[in-house]
Design brief:
The chain contains 15 helices and 21 strands. The chain is α+β, with helices and mostly antiparallel strands and 432 residues long. The chain has 2 domains: 319 residues, BirA Bifunctional Protein, domain 2; 91 residues, Rossmann fold (3-Layer(aba) Sandwich). The strands form 5 sheets. Strands 3, 7, 8, 9, 10, 11, 12, 13 and 16 form a 9-stranded mixed beta sheet that branches. Helix 13 links the parallel strand 17 and strand 18. Helix 1 runs antiparallel to helix 5. The chain is elongated and about 100 Å long. The structure holds histidyl-adenosine monophosphate.
Length: 432
């Protein structure tokens, strides 16, 4: 039976087929994400993979709602697999933000599900690092979140020559829109057209913009002007102070497809333009308010009346584009099975004592392998070589019948003899 289109199997390396993904590479990516998020003081959270449908119909925007894996459950509830983490996080924050000191800095690595047309860099499930900050309205928080994104990509060996953060402002676009169109209910439709400008045929975009009363030329002229707002300038200064100026450029061609963004927005792209966005995010100051019962107020162009109102921003970075990019640049390490110690059982009458040695070694935190069934000595040794074991350990009966432990250093082939397992483990510990 085949797996569903757009879903992946993850195998340990070496991979048996080009159509499967590396579980080792995934683990490496997750570990790197976590390491750098911790370095920036972010703490891990998680939420349910299945949520009430309404959580997404509320404010993610039509595009993502059209891609939902939704159904009615056995209790007649309208539910959906999560297509993104931000609404779940906003719900969690709205419920318990008071219990946490501000700014709240959290990350998570959820698996997300979107019924998208399968294409390069886009599947029907992906893992996405989400890093978000709550409770800080200053643009220093926007700079901090962008620096985290830059440092994560640097941790994979990518440089300013490999990727760029395209920085824009939903607020600037919102002002552009409201000066020309009095109907705020059309704003999201407009943002969607701008979001697709680079991927759509110009004539199609022209027609769609004209239907909303905009000319293609005024929109592209605004993008070309690239004049940073005060807010964007503050972010750029902050990044420059850290030596990160080369990693960012102001680019109003970015607007973000999701409906809830309110301020600075950004996307990370490979400079060669071979891939879709590596990551995307921005400020979404109204979402917790909306999720906690607030309503959109067209007069102020904000959400009002919710139980919780807290400045919010963050980004998501998927594993699909990142893996493809790292692969293309030769930046993914090769992975193979390994062990610290291989216990060789050459004398089956010593299997019980050898099992005791295996357990003692594992208790002492050494990754330890051995043959589950009787096997020729040469085959066991060959396996130790394949596993790139640092040492082999075997037991041998002396003439008087008592066993001794023999440890071989696989690099030097030097052997050491010990009268007890404990002594041998002590040797491993002091030579590890
Ligand atoms: P997004 O732009 O929809 O944002 O997704 C963020 C990243 O996830 C994309 O840049 C891409 O790397 C990856 N991604 C998205 N869809 C797919 C897919 N179908 N297949 C593979 N990778 C994909 C969000 O989801 C926001 N909730 C991010 C955010 C967090 N904003 C604020 N906080």
């Amino acid at each position: 039976m085949d797996r569903l289109p757009g879903f992946r199997d993850f195998y340990p390396e070496p991979l048996p087929h080009k159509d499967v993904w590396s579980a080792d590479a995934r683990c490496y990516i997750f570990d790197t994400w976590k390491k750098i998020a911790h370095r920036y003081g972010f703490r891990e959270y998680d939420g349910p993979p299945l949520e009430p449908l309404e959580l997404y119909t509320l404010k993610s925007g039509e595009e993502i709602v059209g891609q939902l894996y939704n159904f009615t459950d056995k209790g007649d509830r309208n539910v959906s697999m999560r297509p993104e983490m931000t609404p779940t996080l906003a719900r969690m924050i709205a419920a318990h933000e008071r219990n946490y000191r501000k700014p709240i800095k959290w990350f998570s690595i959820p698996q997300l599900f979107r019924y998208e047309r399968q294409q390069k860099g886009r599947l029907r499930e992906h893992f996405q690092l989400n890093a978000d900050i709550f409770g800080e309205a200053s643009s220093s928080a926007d700079a901090e979140i962008i620096c985290l994104l830059i440092d994560i990509l640097r941790a994979f060996g990518l440089t300013a020559e490999d990727f760029v953060i395209r920085l824009s402002s939903r607020r600037a676009w919102s002002e552009f829109f409201s000066k020309r169109c009095p109907d705020p209910s059309k704003a999201y439709e407009f943002y969607q057209i701008v979001d697709k400008l680079e991927r759509e045929e110009p004539d199609v975009s022209k027609q769609k913009l004209a239907a909303l009363g905009f000319s293609y030329e005024e929109v592209t002229a605004f993008i070309a002007s690239g004049e940073p707002t005060e807010e964007l300038k503050a972010i750029l200064d902050n990044l420059s102070a850290r030596g990160f100026a080369d990693f960012v450029k102001v680019d109003y061609g970015v607007i973000r497809g999701l409906a809830y963004y309110t301020g600075p927005v950004f996307e990370a792209f490979d400079r060669k333009g071979h891939f879709r966005a590596i990551a995307g995010g921005g400020r979404y100051d109204n979402l917790t308010n909306l999720i906690s019962g607030g309503k959109f107020d067209p007069a102020s162009n904000t959400v009002k009346g919710g139980k919780v109102d807290i400045p919010s921003l963050g980004f998501g970075m998927g594993d699909v584009v990142l893996t493809e990019l790292l692969k293309e640049r030769g930046l993914l390490p090769a992975f193979s099975p390994s062990a610290d110690v291989c216990v060789l059982i050459e004398d089956e009458t010593l299997r019980s004592q050898s099992l005791s040695a295996v357990q003692t070694l594992r208790d002492a935190d050494f990754s330890t392998e051995y043959s589950l069934v009787p096997l020729k000595a040469e085959k066991q040794f060959k396996r130790a070589i394949e596993l790139k074991a640092r040492w082999t350990f075997r037991m041998e009966k002396q003439e008087n019948g008592t066993p001794i432990c023999i440890v071989k250093n696989m690099a030097t082939r030097e052997e050491h003899r010990f009268t007890s397992i404990k002594e041998a483990v002590q040797y491993f510990k002091s030579n590890f």
